[in-house]
Amino acid sequence: MADPITVSTPHDIVEDAERSRILIRDISGDAPVLVGFLEYRLEGGVRVILHTIIDEAYSRQGWARTLVTEALARFAEDGIRIRSMCSYVDTFMERFPQYRRLLA
Fold it and tell me: What residues does the N-acetyltransferase domain cover (predicted)?
């Protein structure tokens, strides 16, 4: 089972719990640039992933894959289960079945 390839550009992942989002930012320049986010809602102890959105200037470069990979790794570390309503995450789970253990 292959692991997802993530971007090599310096980046960070930040949770905006108030807006129920996991953000990915490009930190290679003088100031962080918001590249995109994964939006979720809480249903009991499950995070339902609603959308994965990436700025068009960063699309098709691996940023969505990086965001989902790192967000799922954090969820796994915290023992959080997920359900997906996001077509990108659904495709990701098909391609990388090792993450299916997180599904509620």
Answer: 14-104
